[in-house]
Predict the 3D structure of the following.
Amino acid sequence: MSSHDLSSDKTDVAANLAEIQSNINTACKASDRDPKDVTLVCVSKNHDADHVRKALVDGRRVFGENRVQEAAGKWPGLRAEFPDIELHLIGPLQTNKVKDAVALFDVIETVDRPKLAKALAKHRDKTGTCPDLFIQINTGEEEQKAGIAPNDADDFIKMCREELDLPIIGLMCIPPVDEEPAPHFTLLGKIADRHGLKIKSMGMSGDYQAAIRFGATHVRVGTAIFGSRGY
Ligand SMILES: *Cc1c(COP(=O)(O)O)cnc(C)c1O
């Protein structure tokens, strides 16, 4: 990012990470789960490389970005320093950016429509490469939000796996901001179970502990690690 966010400089990333890990451990203990089964995806969008590096120096290796272009500016350099990074795309992907996204990301969490699934399959057929994929479910059926409607999820998951042979390994959701997230976490879990999908990406800064109690394997946390994003 070109603009320098002074407020984020004061954020103690290592202290935040320690606190979040402790909260993750507590939530796991309360639900009889192994903390090793919960991956903290550090959401670094809108923070510059120097700020993000603090989490890398602290030992974190799994990161999430929501825009291809921003990730392309920041991550090749960070990867050169820390080669074992796992980068997740957690924002909407346009089909004309598939090539760039596949080159940059290890996981795409936001497969959300047939056109994108087909573009990923076509690219895979041409190049032999495809990242691990999660399907985004619009559990709240919100007009403005990306994702497959819950009623269409079964057909879409089947199409991706059986017709297109895509490496679908999990599901992802972003519950509506103004609602209790628990029913959304439960719904995502039910759809995942029906398809034998073990990976569930759900829970953000405000609700990751609840998400873990509902079976999240990946929590996507930004603000609680890096501080507020200066938009
Ligand atoms: C920004 C973002 C997050 C992180 O949100 P915080 O509230 O800052 O933790 C998680 N998931 C997605 C899809 C996002 O775009």
Residues 175 and 181 are 6 Å apart (CA to CA). The chain is about 45% helix and 15% strand. The mean pLDDT is 95.
